[in-house]
Write a structure and sequence with these properties.
The chain is flat. It is built from four helices and no strands. It has one domain (about 5-105). The chain has helices at about 5-20, 30-50, 55-80, 85-105. About 80% of the residues lie in helices and about 0% in strands. The two termini are about 20 Å apart. The chain is an all-alpha fold and about 100 residues long.
């Protein structure tokens, strides 16, 4: 798999990791905390692998962009987080930035 594919997997791992934080209840629950730490380590490992071929700054920006959009989207769909035109516009700008980062490298 090429660096961009690994980077996409890293972003997906970050999304899952972000959702695994709350169940740890402030890292007071052992099982969820172990899952959270493993997911976080997996995301960073995949990011490091992607950075072998994708420029560091671009990889990190895309990684965090995927994670942010995914985390907010899951928050809205799963947890009923609020939606507003401004929030949708912010997410659209992040997606546009990720796309621009990809096509300009």
């Amino acid at each position: 798999m090429n660096g961009w594919g690994v980077l996409a997997l890293a972003g997906l791992a970050e999304i899952v990791w972000s959702q695994s934080i709350k169940p740890t209840d402030g890292f007071t629950r052992l099982g969820p905390t172990v899952v959270c730490v493993l997911l976080g380590a997996s995301a960073v490992y995949l990011l490091a692998r992607a950075m072998q071929t994708v420029p560091v700054g671009t990889a990190y920006a895309v990684f965090t962009g995927i994670g942010a959009v995914g985390a907010v989207s899951l928050g809205v769909v799963v947890h009923g987080d609020p939606v507003s035109p401004e929030r949708i516009a912010a997410l659209a700008l992040i997606v546009a930035g990720v796309v621009a980062a990809r096509v300009t490298v």
